[in-house]
Amino acid sequence: MTIRAAMLALLEQGPMYGYQLRAEFEQRTGSTWPLNVGQVYTTLTRLERDGLVEHVSDGGSQDAPDQAAQVSYRITSSGRGEVAAWFSTPVPRTQPPRDELAIKLAIAVTLPGVDVTGLVQKQRAATMKALQDYTRLKRTGRAARPDQPEDLAWSLVLDSLVFDAEAEIRWLDHCEARLRRAAAEGQLHTPARPVPANHEEEVSS
User: Fold this and answer.
1) Burial category of 6 from C-beta neighbours within 10 Å (exposed 0-12, middle 13-18, buried 19 and up)
2) How far apart are CA 167 and CA 102, in angstroms?
3) Which CATH class is domain 1-86?
4) 122: number of Cβ within 10 Å
5) DSSP state of 54
6) Contact (CB, 8 A) for 173 and 199
7) DSSP class of residue 199?
C-alpha cells in the first residue's frame, strides 16, 4: 500500500515513466528503501488495472527517433481520490509491522542454550553504529542544509531513522535489565553474562 500510494502521489506532479518514478521516490527518501524497477512497473500495471492510472505515449525521444516510444503513466481522477484519502488518513497502528528483532528476542528467551544477553549487546553495538551513521548524514550533504523540498524530505526520513535507532537502544537497555532480573530469579534458561557498568541502570517495569 505504501509504495502504491507514494507512486500515485508522485504522479500528481505529471506523467512519468517507471524509471522517473523510481528516481523521484529515491530522491525524496535518500534511497533508504530502494525500489526495483520491476516492482515499479508491476505496481503501475496494477494501478492501471484498478483504474487509478492510465498510460500515455510521448512519441519517443527526439534525440533517438528510431527508439520505441516511451510509455508514461498519468494519474486518473480515481487515483487523485486515493491520494487524497491516503494523506487524510492516519497510518494505522493496530497491525504493527513485523519487527525481526522483537521476534528474535521473543523466541530466544524461550529456548535453552541461547545467549540472549550477548544477542542484546551485539544488537546494541550494531544499532549504535547505525545511529552514528545517520547522525553523520544529517550533518553533511543535502540533508544538512535542506533548501529544496526534496532535501527536506530526505532530512525528515533521516530524523525518523535517528529516532527509531534511539528508541531501539533504549528498549535494548530495558531488555537487558529485565534479563538480568529474570536470570537472578532463575527464570532464564541461559544465565545472563555480567552487564557492563554503563548499562547498570535499572529500568522500571
Assistant:
1) buried
2) 13
3) mainly alpha
4) 11
5) E
6) yes
7) G
Query: How many Cα atoms are found within 13 Å in the side-chain-facing hemisphere of 44?
Result: 25
Which stretches within 140-148 are classed as H helix?
Answer: 141-144
Work out whether strand 71-75 and strand 53-57 pair parallel, antiparallel, or are unpaired.
antiparallel
> Angle, nearest 10°, between helix axes 2-11 and 18-29?
110
Q: pLDDT averaged over the chain?
A: 85
Specify the long-range contacts of residues 87-92, CB closer than 8 Å, at least 24 apart.
Answer: 87/9
Residues of the chain with pLDDT under 50: 60-68, 192, 202-205
| Structure confidence by residue, pLDDT tens digits, 114-139 | 899 999 999 999 999 999 999 998 88
Separation CA 13–CA 125 (nearest Å): 42
40-64 as b/e, with b when 16 or more CB fall inside 10 Å? bbebbeebeeeebbeeeeeeeeeee
Q: Cα(131)–Cα(194) distance, rounded to whole angstroms? A: 25
Lookup: cell for 145:
542544509
Share of the chain above pLDDT 90, in %: 54
